[in-house]
Design goal:
The chain has a six-stranded antiparallel sheet with strand order 1-2-3-4-5-6, with no helix packed on it. 0% of the residues lie in helices and 44% in strands. It has 75 residues and is an all-beta fold. The chain has one domain.
Length: 75
């Protein structure tokens, strides 16, 4: 799903087969590397062990710095 905002940037959200958001991006175009040129959020849910919880998150900002955060959930 892609939406053009009033400031000319494009916001998009990609989903997996379980309709979980796998990427949220804000950029100058709708596809490619420029689609996350301002902000990119990637969410990791796992493959065979996907119980709906986020396992990790990677985010990139306009200064091209990339950070990853793994989520540890204890019950």
């Amino acid at each position: 799903m892609t939406v053009q905002l009033g400031n000319g940037l494009f916001e998009h959200t990609d989903f997996n087969s379980r309709l979980q958001p796998t990427q949220i991006g804000l950029g100058t175009t709708t596809t490619g590397a420029a689609s996350i040129s301002v902000l990119g959020l990637d969410y990791l849910f796992g493959t065979t062990n996907n119980n709906g919880n986020v396992l990790g998150q990677t985010y990139a900002t306009a200064d091209q710095s990339v950070r990853r955060r793994d989520v540890l959930v204890c019950f």
